[in-house]
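Q: I have 474 residues here and want to know how they pack in 3D. Can you give me a structure?
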Amino acid sequence: MSVPADHIVDEFRAVLDHNAVLTGGDADPFLLDPRNLRTADAAVVVRPADTAGVAATVRICAAHNVAIVPQGGNTGLSYGTESPTDRPSIVLSLARLNQIESVDPDRWTITAQAGVTIEAIQNAAKAVNRVFAPDWGARGTASVGGGIATDAGGNNVVRYGNMRDNVMGIEAVLADGTIWDGRRALVKDSSGYDLKHLFIGGEGTLGIVTSAVLKLRPATPYETSLLAAITGLEALAPLLDLAQQHAPGTVTAFELMPLVAIDRVVDVFDVVKPLDTDTEYFALIKLASSNPVDGQIAAFLEAGAEAGLIVDAAVAGTPEQEANLWAIRDHIPPTSAYIEHQHHGLKLDTAVPVDKVKEFVQSVLGAAAEIAPMALAYGFGHVGDGNLHMMILPITDEAVEPWLEVRDAMTAEIDRLVFELDGTLSAEHGVGLLLRDRIGPQKPDIEWEMMRTVKRALDPQNLFNPGKLIPPVG
């Protein structure tokens, strides 16, 4: 990349406070992604403290045709914050927009700036006997703006939906520096295009979301999770059905965890293995309600055992046991960082229709056994909504070279399987640069062209996160 000229940097400094513009070594902490890979060789990082500062920054960039790479909590996994190499650009950090602006339990909303963490929103909701439902492992660092940019999902989607289902309105800065305040807390509004949905999942390519009105849900003081050792992948769909039958409206999470992933977490982190069984697959299920769920759990487990779907189960009986179950689940992704050659592997954010989960996992594992027998392959994740995180990783020194020879073939086969099953390569992590050149076949050409038309209309200079999300023509 190239950094803006000094006189442009001086313009940023002239309109923002002295903490707002970082260059040289001061900018380096903002140039490392969660994998500890650099997103740029050098950069100017601009850190406004409010929406007006964001707007001023955008106006300067528009005047000088400087690209803008937005950054939230910097937890993204799809190379969505890579700086362009063909034009001057800045990193626009939203971290200082970190204020919860209002908490309104009577309206069932929280209004918060883009840099507020998901965990802070959850805690603010809890303080007024409400729930902010979106939740994932990086909750302590991931931000509201980043979650909106990728339409993040996480553990509770099976009940509460993705981020877009929990956003009622947004404030955004447009390409000419105009501030659009669309923060309306209306449950119903059929007065025209619902424009916020262009920005939710837009990965910062249409404008900069600076604030949002977020939806709150009723408190669920009775929350209990269980870990069930299941007879195999074929048990997942009927178990989900049984859970919904015996605990209607309370199934909040339904996760697949393979034994190989659990064992790796237990080896690396300070957690306790809940079940001493060697079954290959486990389901982590959470029920949450305003009333006790013990009876529903007992009925579900009895039905699952009678149907030959559950081999054994551990029910969290204390807050510590509950936390332990979810610590295991949360630590499955970071555990891969302890595999020496993990950066050569494939870590996928795929989703298929819920009834195709078993077929997809079996097909990927079968393809890995045939194409890449030297690699460790397993899948985990949000099977309640069809979102599977498949991992194919070389785990020995000897495996790296043969793996690299077949990695492209393995990638192509996974893409083929996803498209064949009407799935997606990006369920919740976003497209970024990682998937941009692979995702084209997922949608018809007319759909991509409609997106390009929207991009040209809202960002005619291609200022916002250029090169991300939308595949290039041809």
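Q: Anything worth noting?
A: The CA atoms of residues 274 and 314 lie 6 Å apart. The longest strand covers residues 222-230.
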